[in-house]
Amino acid sequence: MIVQGQVNSTCPCQNGTETAMFITFEGPEGSGKTCHIPDLADFLTQEGYEVVVTREPGGTPIGDEIRDTLLKLGNTAMHPTTEILLFQASRAQHVHQLILPAIQAGKIVLCDRFADSTMAYQGYGHQTDLEELARIIRFATGGLLPDLTLLLDVDIEIGLQRRSADRQNWNRLDAKEIAFHQRVRQGYLEMAAAQPERWEIIDASQPLEDVLADIQTIVIERVKKHFT
Ligand code: TYD
Questions:
Q1: Is the residue at 125 inside a domain?
Q2: What is the CATH number of the domain that holds 109?
Q3: How deeply is 12 buried, as exposed, middle or buried, from its count of CB atoms within 10 A (0-12, 13-18, 19+)?
Q4: For 107, phi and psi rounded to 5 degrees?
Q5: pTM, rounded to two decimals
Q6: How many domains does the chain have?
Q7: Which end of the chain is more exposed for a tag (fewer CB within 10 A), N or C?
């Protein structure tokens, strides 16, 4: 994991734990990230690695309270700036309370969404200035970047169809218009193309078992390389 900019006292690189790994999962709605992460965690555990699974928004008790506010369908009055700052508040708590300690303990952290979601949804989706967002994200994360980001890419119409079958978890951001979700997907593809050394794109329109097989193949190869 890379900590950009000013190095602070919690920088994992200063604690001799370069062997830990921070892996994030990104994708538009209905890409299936959430159902593959526990299976990947089991697989890595069987391979002998210590794994921590977490998600955003949330991941800590304070973050989970912020998550409820962010995703509540009734919160239609939420201003875009409020939305951006609440995601970063949840993230700052998550980084400092859970992610950095796990990294310092030499674990593999699997995180369902991280800062790239803010760039994709609030940046490309809501069309907020990307440089300004990057600055706010850096403040929240202390510059922590994933070692590997898997983009589970799926056509928006297929993804939203999958999501709407799960009415119980339908949230305020799922309910945005199709053009918003198209911009989010496009944003992800642009970010992945700009940093191919960090991103891997997986075709999430395949049958579930094929998607999981692709994830396992990519992750184990990268993990083995990272730990040698
Ligand atoms: P969730 O139910 O966890 O959806 P998913 O299974 O797709 O991850 O809801 C999280 C929602 O929050 C999702 O619509 C993406 C959005 N989001 C942002 O807009 N910005 C962010 O920084 C993060 C972390 C999530």
A1: yes
A2: 3.40.50.300
A3: buried
A4: -90, 165
A5: 0.91
A6: 1
A7: C
Determine the distance separating the centroid of ligand 1 and the alpha carbon of 115, expressed in angstroms: 11
Stated as kind and residue range, the H or E segment containing 38 is: helix 33-46
Quick check: is 11 in a domain?
A: no
User: Containing domain of residue 96, as a range?
Assistant: 18-226
For ligand 1, whether the C-beta of 69 sits within 6 Å is: no
Residue among 27, 29, 42, 53 at smallest CA distance from 202 = 27
Assess if residue 114 is contained within a domain: yes
* Residue at 10 is within a domain: no
Nearest CA to ligand 1 atom 16: 173
Cα(117) to ligand 1 centroid in Å equals 7
pLDDT, tens digit, 9 for 90 and up, residues 2-56? 665 433 333 333 334 467 999 999 999 888 898 999 999 999 999 999 999 999 9
